[in-house]
Specification:
The complex is a heterotrimer of chains A (about 260), B (about 160) and C (about 260). Chain A is an alpha/beta fold and about 260 residues long. Chain A is about 40% helix and about 25% strand. Chain A is built from ten helices and ten strands. A six-stranded mixed sheet of chain A has the order 6-7-8-3-9-10, with helices on both faces. In chain A, strands 2-1-4-5 form a four-stranded antiparallel sheet, with no helix packed on it. Chain B has about 160 residues and is α/β, with parallel strands linked by helices. Chain B has two domains: about 30 residues; about 100 residues. Chain B contains two helices and eight strands. The longest helix of chain C is centred in the middle third of the chain and has 39 residues. Chain C starts with a helix and ends with a helix. The chains are: A alpha/beta (about 260), B alpha/beta (about 160), C mainly alpha (about 260). At the A-C interface, helix 2, strand 6 and helix 3 of A face helix 5 of C.
């Protein structure tokens, strides 16, 4: 099986803080890969590294065999036409209608006529169930609808890779179910490669083909959903079950409370 | 707001700005008269130019016929030389004409008053580059007061 | 010691900010222009920053002209020189108040809105998402706003001066009885197209570049949180007002100082 994205011995620092240390992952083509981990460990950063918005301090990111950090601007922009990203907030352009939002990448990058663009946009909106909402402005959409509209925009140019940044965060159960179904269907129907960054365990176990769990700047567990469920790593099990205390401590690093309150 | 309405609004806005500029240029700065058309130069020497400045008006009986182009000092006799630029349409002044430096109102701007002389046979007309011989200097308030006090002392 | 350390840190911060601002300006305006796509976007922004600022410019211009008519008249009438009201109103507006007050109002009305809008686009990941769609946000978002500000502010300043002169006329001539003929004619002999009007326009163009640049950069460089955006918006108004007033002195000294 070919890997569409490969991350090789990547180290990334933000200021003095190391986000990733010597991390390696591979994303197989045509599959849904989930990247999981506690909040605040830079899962979104990983997507930005793949998208070339950030450059690693060392190591390499390969997209279809080509090194993203080594590209110049024009090559990077050409490469980005084959990938798209669904941002946490949706990132719809606030001043445009849903239709224009979905049409935007087509108008920018294709030389199709307005008629053809209209057909494509309506098909994409139909796929996410928002064809009736084409005239609405993003401010008139609910959070779940905004994410679906953004998804329609993300697939407008039929990318090879689609990256989902926390697609389920803050969604009610119904919207969550809709999004899970959409991600699954799109992946099967369009033969997309998907990377889902999330910390919603149950949803991910149903859609992912392969899972990476990241914590402490490292991959702490990987495998198919079955392998992950049966993992013997204490950290992985804590994450899956959502235990309050464990290898990831409940307390932010601090000295012992008795010595702090009673004096040493 | 669709883009058509927006374009119209921006178009109106730009027209308004152009109208404002035209109003300023024509009505406020009065570019209509000057700058257009041919001009010729005349020179005049004064003992004292007072507050005359470059771009001050040159008037005949209140009608503006030109402007002061530049003011310099003659290196030989140390008197100010004023270069006047006069519109071509007011030509053929006799060379008996005189110029004086006058003030519009009590505190107003100073300008060059041009007094055309009588023309009769044997009198040449002023040609471009000529010096006007008959000049009256600006009235300087301090001098006037000095003269006034001096004449009172005589009494 | 702490004082020197802070001064040093602030200096370095300031210089790096100017550097980032220059990179942004270069990337947006100078590098890789693409007129076919930029012109419609710029027209849209001209609507937002220009047409929507028109009302405040008209109202303030009119009132400032009227106040100058009133104040000028009460001073000048003591010297019997109320005929000079025309040049007083016109020259103050064309040389100073038109460009300066327009720039200050523009900073408050359009500049702060630009900063907040771009800051919000950053906070809601719209700028990132443009980048991921292989569209350069500098060209798509920043350049049209810069152009729109630079083009519209001088126009607003001209409109401001024109309406102000009419306001002065309204008070001076129509209400206080200065002779209409002398209001205009003395104004005409005192005002010069190049010396006064064009210098005012040049001033206004300089202010336009500085204010729009500050506004757009503060949004683009803001920390994408609600405090970050509100701080950036305040900074836009403060920095651009100070820059306008400081630059105005320099420009006035250069243009009118050596007469």
């Amino acid at each position: 099986m070919k890997n569409l994205v490969e991350i090789k011995n990547l180290t990334f620092k933000r200021g003095d803080r190391t986000i990733y240390h010597d991390i390696s992952m591979s994303i197989p083509e045509g599959k849904t890969t989930a990247i999981m981990g506690p909040s605040g460990i830079g899962k979104t950063t990983m997507l930005r590294l793949i998208g070339g918005q950030l450059k690693p301090d060392s190591g390499d990111v390969l997209f279809a065999g080509k090194s993203i950090p080594g590209m110049n601007r024009a090559q990077l922009y050409a490469c980005r036409r084959h990938m798209s990203m669904l941002f946490q907030s949706g990132a719809l352009f606030t001043e445009m209608s849903v239709f224009d939002n979905v049409a935007f990448p087509l108008r920018e990058h294709s030389h199709l006529s307005e008629d053809v663009i209209r057909t494509i946009v309506l098909l994409k909106l139909q796929a996410v169930g928002l064809r009736g909402a084409e005239k609405l402005l993003p401010s008139e959409l609910s959070g779940g609808m905004a994410r679906r509209a953004a998804l329609a925009r993300a697939i407008a140019l039929d990318p090879r890779l689609i990256m989902y940044d926390e697609p389920f965060a803050g969604q009610d159960p119904i919207s969550m179910g809709v999004l899970v179904k959409l991600i699954k269907d799109l992946n099967d129907a369009l033969n997309l490669t998907s990377i889902v960054v999330t910390h919603d365990v149950t949803e991910v176990l149903t859609i992912a083909d392969y899972i990476y769990i990241i914590a402490e700047k490292q991959v702490i567990g990987e495998g198919t959903p079955e392998q992950i469920k049966n993992s013997d790593s204490a950290l992985v099990q804590q994450f899956l079950r959502g235990d309050a205390d464990g290898p990831v401590p409940f307390h932010y690093p601090v000295d012992d409370i008795s010595s702090a309150l009673l004096g040493s | 707001m669709n883009s058509r309405k927006m374009e119209i609004a921006v178009g109106l806005f730009v027209s308004l700005a152009v109208a404002a500029f035209l109003m300023l240029a024509l009505k406020v700065a009065d570019q209509g008269m000057q700058g257009s058309g041919e001009t010729y130069e005349l020179f005049a020497k004064f003992d004292n130019i007072g507050g005359l400045k470059a771009r001050s008006a040159v008037k005949v009986g209140g009608v503006i016929i030109g402007r002061v182009d530049s003011i310099s000092l003659d290196k030989d006799d140390f008197t100010p030389v004023v270069k006047l630029v006069v519109s071509q349409e007011y030509g053929d002044f006799p060379d008996t004409s005189s110029v004086s430096i006058l003030t519009s109102g009590l505190l107003g701007e100073q300008y060059v008053g041009f007094q055309p002389g009588f023309s009769f046979d044997g009198v040449d007309t002023l040609k471009p580059g000529d010096f006007i011989e008959d000049t009256k200097s600006a009235l300087v308030l301090e001098d006037l007061i000095g003269q006034f006090l001096f004449s009172r002392n005589d009494e | 010691m702490e004082f020197f350390a802070r001064t040093g840190r602030n200096t370095i911060d300031g210089i790096t900010r100017i550097g980032r601002a220059s990179v942004m300006f270069w990337g947006a305006i100078v590098a890789r222009p693409r007129p076919m796509k930029s012109i419609p976007l710029t027209i849209k922004q001209m609507y937002v920053v220009g047409v929507q600022s028109l009302l405040i410019i008209l109202v303030s211009g009119l009132f400032i002209g009227m106040v100058m008519g009133l104040q000028g008249y009460t001073v000048l009438v003591n010297y019997g020189a109320e005929e000079s009201l025309g040049p007083m109103v016109a020259l103050s507006l064309l040389r100073e108040l038109g460009p300066v007050v327009t720039a200050l109002l523009f900073a408050g009305r359009a500049g702060s809105a630009l900063t907040a809008e771009i800051g919000l686009m950053k906070a809601t990941e719209q700028l990132s998402s443009l980048e991921m769609m292989a569209v350069d946000p500098l060209r798509q978002v920043i350049a049209p706003r810069l152009w729109a500000g630079i083009l519209t502010m001088p126009m607003l300043a001209l409109i401001f001066s024109a309406i102000g002169i009419l306001g002065g006329h309204l008070v001076g001539v129509d209400w206080l009885g200065v002779d209409a003929g002398s209001y205009w004619s003395i104004m005409q002999s005192a005002v010069d197209l190049n010396e006064d009007i064009m210098n005012g326009v040049i001033k206004s163009v300089v202010f336009a570049i500085v204010v729009t640049w500050i506004a757009v950069f503060n949004g683009y460089d803001s920390i994408p949180t609600s405090e970050g955006i509100s701080k950036a918006t305040t900074q836009t108004v403060v920095h651009s007002s100070l820059a306008v007033l400081g630059l105005d002195f320099v420009l006035t000294a250069v243009m009118f100082g050596t007469e």
